[in-house]
Amino acid sequence: MKKVTEKKVARKVAKFFANVSNDVSNTFIGIGNSSPSRFLCLINAGLLNGFTREEIFDIFIGFGEIENLVMIERKSYCILSFKNECAAAESYEKLNGSFCLKGETKVLYLSYLEKFPTNMIDLKESPKVWPSGLKLKENFISEEEEEKLLDLTVSDPQTLQLKHRTVKHYGFEFKYGSNKVDRNPLPNAIPEEMEPIIKKFVELGITRPNQLTVNHYAPGQGIPLHTDTHSSFEDGIISISLCSDIVMDFMSNDDGRRVSIVLPRRSCLIISQESRYSWSHGITPRKYDVTQAADNGLTVIRRENRTSLTFRKVRTSKCDCTFSRWCDSQLEDSADLSEKTADNIERKHVFHVYDEIASHFSETRHWLWKWEIPYVFAVTFQHWNRSIKATTKCL
Ligand SMILES: O=C(O)CCC(=O)C(=O)O
Ligand SMILES: [Fe+2]
User: Fold this and answer.
1) ipTM value for the complex
2) Which H or E element spans position 344?
3) 354 near 377, Cβ under 8 Å?
4) Which fold is adopted by the domain 134-319?
5) What is the pLDDT of residues 340-350, one digit of tens each?
6) What is the pTM of this model?
7) 124, 219, 262, 379: least surrounded by Cβ within 10 Å?
């Protein structure tokens, strides 16, 4: 254990206190070592810097019974309470300024709290309603099937390197420039060995696919929010996750409502109806995802290399879904094309884009941006609107 001087500990704690005073008002006490209590703030170990609940429990469990641990999304600190004060005092004495965190380059800093800041519990996200038509089948494939599927898709010379991931198409190629499927069949169809897996989801009522896109994501990579082009694919899109859990984000194209869903490794996601036609889906590029732990608190899951198999059926006729406002087949046909397209494209690509950018900015920058970005982007994008009308979001 590396011991940092008391002066340095006090400096760190004071600096932290100044930064988070909005979150916790005047509940921090005992800067230095003065007023012990049962409540501890772990100043530099939280969800934002990648600590899991298990890691925090592991550090403190040896000192006594833990009563509560609150980990807050987008915060690099967390708050822990012991059942009794002795346990808190002992852990404070042993760990503060001396316990080496991951990689032994940083030490843990602690501060006592006067009371448990109950308002923090409210920062937990309440469960959200999934868009209709979205279903998740966990353990859809076995570990052996996962391995076979991987063998069928890895090290293929025809893999395409995109900015944030690599892709490979079977059956038909999806052209990311135009966001449309190329209707000339590829020489490589979906491998026959995948038939047992395809049979499983066809039995669930999904249209038999004739197109497969394999995406490989390294930790930190993702896919921008998008709606799979209506005119290119039928309803019922399947995504099978291999090798890693991941969080997929969904956003309503109509009102920007958001839902994030954990896709466990070996699960099968069915995106149909409303979730397919009028919501966007995407994966935020990051190395770990915040999610709910078994005890209902928040924790993080670290991403591994993930391969996903997206099965789709290429459309042979125009899309006639009931979500015409988002349907390129129907918008192209409609007489008031320019008006409607401009409106919808502006809503999707302008307002929701700046909304999205704003949330990313506020995750990594904790000041000013949160309120300024939407305004700045609204003004700027309105000027750009004319040229944006002709563009679609490129994957
Ligand atoms: O990786 C995934 O699960 C989704 C991929 C996807 O949405 C797509 O290729 O259109
Ligand atoms: Fe997609």
Assistant:
1) 0.99
2) helix 337-345
3) yes
4) Jelly Rolls (2.60.120)
5) 555 665 555 44
6) 0.71
7) 379
